[in-house]
Amino acid sequence: MAIISKSIDEAKNWLEAGNIVSIPTETVYGLAGNALNEEAVTKIFTTKERPSFDPLIVHIGRMEDLETYAKDIPKEAYILAEKFWPGALSILLPKTESIPYLVTSGLDTVAIRMPNHPLTLELLQHLDFPLAAPSANPFGYISPTSAKHVEDQMGDKIPFILDGGPCSVGVESTIVGWEDGQLTIYRLGGVSVEEIEEVLGQSVMQKSHSSSNPQAPGMLKSHYAPSKPFYLGNLDDLLEEFEDEVVGVIAFRDELLDIDEEDQIVLSPSGDLEEAARNLFSALRKMDDLDVDVILAEPVPNIGLGKAINDRLKRAAAGH
Ligand code: TXA
Ligand code: MG
Q1: Rounded to the nearest whole angstrom, what is the distance from the C-alpha of residue 143 to the centroid of ligand 2?
Q2: Does the CB atom of residue 145 touch ligand 1 within 6 A?
Q3: Sheet of 264-266, strands arranged across
């Protein structure tokens, strides 16, 4: 089983020896390896059982690394990096030769992000290579937001988990890039559309999910899915529809009086979207582990982080 520890030195040793380890970030835990070492990158794909056509995000710990791994960087990218890094924003840019095509699944662009977690930032600053890291869950399942989540699913496949506590954001990074010079959001995430638009003083395009674009499976309709049947909608309507089943409920702020307390999770009793995002993935996991037949959930207000939460809920529901 994996060693679980807060030792940055130990994580560094494993990585320098070409192994993959799980690292904490503010969004979700990652499954990290030396992005410049093809053997390590191959281990990431096989451990996660991830199709090789799904590219990995490259994590850096120093602003100057941006220009080592990306080129032809638009001015807007610098503005976004200055404002949101370290943070939950991945930026798609033309890659330099140092990034292997294995990392980008043959694409000429690479997704780069500087994560905002003290342990992982320090680790990255002590390494002389960047870390390729997808979320540390089996492909298609719910992303991990604690070391325990990683241990439960990956503990027998990797040697080491760097324990940085529960993730403070709880949903994956927002992914942006440029299409014909136009800034485009490819995945909703921890940095909201509103925040990006405010910084740039303009509205940005948003690509809705696609089931036909294999180059970005994070955009696939069904993803982040629990293994139980999962339905999203108005809870009163769903409860009526499933009145003959044992149901588990994920509510946004209000507890349901006619459901057992153990069978429901309120994401944020105060109606705070940041708190709801932090609790989202562990709520999905808990429901999956409960003795219920069906999971029912309601959308949250569709503003700020709420858009990323609703996106994950929709994809969790799409598999069923
Ligand atoms: O918050 C996060 O982004 C977490 C933490 C660990 O940093 N990482 C994460 O990685 O969510 P992953 O692999 O689970 O999701 C990354 C998404 C994938 O859907 C992939 O298709 C997309 O980013 N992606 C990566 N590189 C890309 C590229 N060059 N072009 C298009 N999409 C890309
Ligand atoms: Mg993922």
Answers
A1: 6
A2: no
A3: 230-232, 294-297, 247-251, 264-266
Helix 193-200 to helix 75-84 angle (10° resolution) is 120
Only one residue has tokens 């905002």, namely: 116
Phi, psi of 286 (to 5 degrees): -60, -45
**Cα–Cα distance between 312 and 303 in angstroms, integer?**
14
Please enumerate in sequence order all residues whose Cβ is within 8 A of that of 138, keeping only pairs 6 or more positions apart, or say none: 48, 49, 153, 154
Alpha carbon of 186 to ligand 1 centroid (Å): 10
Helix, strand, coil shares of the chain, percent, nearest 5, are 35, 20, 45
Look up residue 61 and give its two tokens. 């710990």
Counting from 1 in the atom list of ligand 1, the atom nearest the Cα of 50 is: 13
DSSP code of residue 297: E
Mutate to test the pocket of ligand 1, among 48, 59, 172 (most ligand atoms within 8 A of CB): 172
Q: How far is the CA of 243 from the centre of ligand 1 (A)?
A: 39
Give which of 215, 166, 171 is closest to 313, Cα–Cα.
171
* Any ligand 1 atom below 6 A from CB of 34: no
Q: What does the pLDDT profile of the chain (320 residues) look like in tens digits?
A: 999 999 999 999 999 999 999 999 999 999 999 999 999 999 999 999 999 899 999 999 999 999 999 999 999 999 999 999 999 999 999 999 999 999 999 999 999 999 999 999 999 999 999 999 999 999 888 999 999 999 999 999 999 999 999 999 999 999 999 998 899 999 999 999 999 999 999 999 998 654 444 445 455 556 678 889 999 999 999 999 999 999 999 999 999 988 999 999 999 999 999 999 999 999 999 999 999 999 999 999 999 999 999 999 999 998 66
